[in-house]
Amino acid sequence: MTENKSGFKVLQPGLLTLIQDAGRYGHHRIGLTTGGPLDAQAFKWANRLLGNNLNSTTLEISIGGLVLEAEVDTYMVLTGAEMPLKINGIERDRWHAHRIQQGDRIELGFATQGARAYLGVVGGFQIEPSFSSSATVTREGIGGLDGGKLQQGDYLYCAEIKSAQVYRLPEQHRPQYNDNISLRVITGYQQDSFSGFEKRMFFSSEYSVTDRADRMGYRLSGPQVKASIDGILSEGICHGAIQIPADGQPIVLLNDRQTIGGYPKIGSMISLDTARMAQLLPGAKVHFEEITIDDAHNLHCLAHMKFERTKPEEV
Question: Which residues are CB-neighbours of 148 under 8 A, at least 6 positions away?
C-alpha cells in the first residue's frame, strides 16, 4: 500500500471512525456520491493548524471512543465536537497541535457537545485514493482502508515528522455547538408543489432530530408538510436537499446521499448549515429560515473571508 511503515495502530476504533479527505467529486455520472467531511469547517481547520494542504486525509470521529498507539514521531490536532483528548492519560487542548512520539497513547472520550471531531497529522494519513479520493462511503464500500469504518487492528500510515511549524486556534475563534439552531434554506423550483400554508408551516415550526440521522441524511420529526404530488421522476440530488416523503417528515440529505431520487424537495440547506446540523445528536431542535440565493452567496463569501483572515497562533 505504501513504502512508509510508520503510523498508528488502532487499539479501539470508536463508534464510527471514518477516513475522509475533502470528498470525491466528478463521479456522480457513475453513481458515486461525494462523501467527505460532514463538518467541512472543522475538517479544514484540522489541516490548516498542521500546515497541511486543505484536502489532506484526516479521521472523522463520530461520538468518540477512538484509541490509537503511535509508532511514529509527528504532530497531531483534534478539532470539531467537544470530545476529550488525552495523550498518555493527560488531557490536552483541542484545536491545538501537539507533538506525538513513538509509544504515545491517544485516547478520545465521548462527545459532550457536538457529534463529529476531526483528527489530523502533519502531511495527512497516507491512504491510496479510490476514484480520486480517500473519502470513505460505507454504503458504496469505497475509500478508506477497505471501504468501511475503522476496525480494531487497522494501521494508519503517515510520514515521520521530527519538526514542523504548527498552530493553535484561539478560543474566541472556536465554534460553539448548540442543540437548538436555525438553518437557512433556499427554496427551489419544486416549492410550487407546496401550498402557501404548507410552506408557512415548514418555516414556522420546530423539528427534532430523530435517531435516523446519519451521513446519508438527517430525518426530522415535527408538523407534517404535504406536497401536492406524491413523487417526481428521479433526478440528481444536491447536497443539503430537503426531501418531503409521503409521511410529511423532512429528510435533509448529506454527503453520503444517493445521487438521484424521486421525492419532492421544498428547498436546499446551505452547506454552512448542513455542517452545523451534522454536529447535532438525536433530540436536538431545529428551525428553518428562508433566504435567497444571493444571501447564500454572501454568507459563503463572508465565511471564506473569515476563515482566511483568522490567524492561528504558532505553537
Answer: 136, 138, 141
